[in-house]
Design goal:
heterodimer; A: mainly beta; about 0% helix; B: mainly beta; 7-stranded mixed β-sheet; 4-stranded antiparallel β-sheet; about 50% strand; globular
Chain lengths: ~110, ~110
Amino acid sequence: GQQVMQIPQYQHVQEGEDFTTYCNSSTTLSNIQWYKQRPGGHPVFLIQLVKSGEVKKQKRLTFQFGEAKKNSSLHITATQTTDVGTYFCAGPETSGSRLTFGEGTQLTVNP
Amino acid sequence: NAGVTQTPKFQVLKTGQSMTLQCAQDMNHEYMSWYRQDPGMGLRLIHYSVGAGITDQGEVPNGYNVSRSTTEDFPLRLLSAAPSQTSVYFCASSYWAGGPYEQYFGPGTRLTVT
């Protein structure tokens, strides 16, 4: 079945440093979604990318969807302590009903 | 709107007991799903539904049953609880447009099976 992999599993940064997490799917995705989960909380939707090669920005966050629609990345510029949490990517297969999540990247930010 | 609600928030079961985790949404979403979250394993799909009367299995369906008699409700039943089912359970819902889109998650149920 479809597999969605994320690297790294953990990332520790100093406040002000940049952060990137990568997401790779074993199959072509119809879209890629990104979520953030704060410690003790539930996942919260950040963004969805649909088109091949698409790039979207939300303030310090930049999201990319690969040309083959099998990979994606989330880049945070100049991290802040409010960025702490686990970032998940998720995607349905083309014409699929299942939404498969990656294992997530847990980000800690040292002030 | 209350969004997605889940009850109970916490539950302790003994091995072999059964119970139902409740999930309800008031956004008229067609798509609903259940995930379990274990440390270091992300969110794993248990069951999902694309509308009332339609359910299907996810990655880890064994030991769980679901039904979808209304658009609003999607209960998850544990048939005979086992310690391996100790986890945090999240219910989610979204619009359906040929695929699942932005997921709205409930606050979760923390289940411990002893």
